[in-house]
Design brief:
It is a single chain. The chain is α/β, with parallel strands linked by helices. The chain is 54% helix and 8% strand. Helix 3 packs across helix 4, helix 6 runs parallel beside helix 8 and helix 12 runs antiparallel to helix 13. The longest helix is centred in the first third of the chain and has 17 residues.
Length: 434
């Protein structure tokens, strides 16, 4: 009865919008774990049983979770850990160490991080170890419980696993797999990677100590499932404080998802990336346009959010260039057109620019050679151009061969939006051969 009352109560629109933003931002940004993972039940069961054997029964294991970005590898692991820690013994004993190949770029940094996450800085103190193996053995030894001879189980999660294979001699991987294979201490090593060929990166001695267990995740939702996800992500729960507002909001989202132009936009995103995170970004941009004066997401909001998502970062950079830099880009465009994409050098660009100047009676574009050189270098720093060959660094700068990293459509689109772009520059860009 009280719940019914809460649903039927009416709140001011401002409060409803604030509450709505709070619920949906939490859902989209923090990616709440679902109660039950759909489509990967077998993988969930396999990983849960594997980690339970380490956390509860003290058995060591190693496994790789492999799949493309956005397939749900981290989500799967988080759901398994949540379910595992519901077991009293696992919650009491299991220690976790999370490493990432992008952050722990060598074994020394990784070891420091392991020590920090296991809270063993005081135990290690100023001790000096001869090798990585000795150091790791000491850390695992330090975890032994006072009342029993057994060590506490440790879960090592190695995100971007393939990057650890680039460490010198793969020492970290070798020692972790070595411990997981022997009975020194109960540890589970879970690697997360996007690379299907990851085992080919491992040295023979490392590969021989790995269990070769792999859990594959392949993200292949249908467009209908994708649309369903949009609806579930944007709809309000039944226990929303204002029942009428929630009902109206959910009805508007249903209408929105059935709108033909909106469906086309969502299909474009679906074909571009089936990663739910990119969908969440699109929905967040839509949500940010909701306000008291506009308490619903309109098709125009989805179209604008999509435009922002697909905005060309390189073309946007052109809006901040000086007129001289823009002229050099146009000169490069003409050289590309004439020589069919062959590389060019500053001298060629300068000559092309001079041709344009010769057609002008005024001298507002007359720049000294050092100024043009500086502008040319700035374009390279912005990575709008790049050298063809790194060895050409020894070549005199005017003759270093370069390529333009923009295509004609990007240049023309940027010129249309360039603030107060001189007409003659636009005309020069549109002319066939400079």
């Amino acid at each position: 009865m009280s719940k019914r009352k809460m649903k039927d109560s009416h709140l001011p629109v401002g409060e409803c919008i604030t509450k709505l933003q709070e619920i949906l931002r939490e859902r989209l940004c923090h990616q709440q774990l679902p109660d039950r993972l759909e489509g990967v039940e077998a993988q969930h069961k396999h990983l849960l049983e594997l980690l339970k054997r380490t956390a509860v029964h003290g058995e060591s294991n190693s496994v790789l979770i492999v799949g493309p970005r956005g397939a749900g590898k981290t989500m799967l692991l988080k759901c398994v850990l949540r379910d595992l820690l519901e077991e009293t013994e696992a919650e009491k004993n299991l220690l976790q160490v999370h490493l990432n190949g992008l952050l722990q770029t060598d074994d020394r940094v990784a070891l420091k991080e392991i020590t920090r996450q296991l809270h063993l800085e005081n135990v290690v103190g100023d001790k000096v170890f001869g090798s990585f193996a000795e150091n790791l053995a000491f850390l695992l030894e330090a975890l032994k419980k006072g009342d029993r001879s057994s060590s506490r189980p440790v879960l090592f999660v190695l995100d971007e696993f393939d990057l650890f294979a680039h460490h010198k001699n793969q020492t970290l991987l070798y020692n972790l797999f070595d411990v997981s294979q022997s009975a020194q201490a109960p540890i589970a090593v879970v690697g997360i990677t996007c690379r299907l060929d990851v085992l080919e990166l491992l040295e023979k001695r490392v590969k021989s100590r790995f269990s070769h267990r792999q859990i594959h995740l392949l993200s292949s939702p249908t467009f209908d499932q994708y649309l369903e996800r949009v609806w579930t992500q944007l709809s309000l729960p039944e226990d929303f404080p204002d029942g009428k507002f929630a009902m109206d909001w959910n009805a508007s989202i249903k209408t929105l998802c059935e709108d033909k132009p909106v469906e086309e936009v969502l299909e474009r995103h679906f074909n571009s990336s089936k990663d739910f995170r990119s969908m969440h970004m699109l929905l967040m941009l839509c949500l940010s346009r909701v306000s008291v004066t506009k308490p619903a997401i309109k098709p125009a909001d989805v179209l604008e959010a999509s435009r922002l998502c697909f905005a060309d970062a390189m073309a946007n950079m052109l809006h901040g260039l000086s007129i001289l830099e823009l002229c050099l880009i146009i000169a490069m465009k003409h050289l590309n057109d004439v020589y069919e994409g062959e590389p060019f050098n500053l001298q060629m660009v300068h000559n092309e620019f001079k041709k344009f100047l010769q057609r002008k009676s005024h001298s507002m574009y007359n720049f000294e050679q050092p100024v043009i050189m500086k502008a040319f270098e700035h374009l390279q720093q912005l990575e709008l151009t790049r050298p063809v060959d790194s060895s050409s660094a020894k070549t005199q700068r005017e003759y270093q061969l370069m390529r333009l990293m923009l295509d004609n459509s990007q240049i023309m689109e940027a010129l249309q939006k360039y603030p107060q772009c001189p007409t003659d520059v636009k005309q020069w860009a549109m002319s066939a051969f400079g």
